[in-house]
Amino acid sequence: MAKKSVRKSVKKALAKAKKGKAAKRKAPAKQVKADVQAVTGAVPPMAPAEIEEAFRRFKEASPEPKTELKHSNPFTLVVAVALSAQATDAGVNKATPALFALADTPAKMAALGEDRIRDLIKTIGLFRTKARNVAALAQKLVAEHGGEVPRDRAALEALPGVGRKTANVVLNVAFGEPTIAVDTHIFRVGNRTGMATGKDVFAVEQKLDAVVPAHYKSHAHHWLILHGRYICVARKPRCDVCIIADLCKWPGKTAA
Question: pTM of whole model > 0.85?
Answer without folding.
Answer: yes
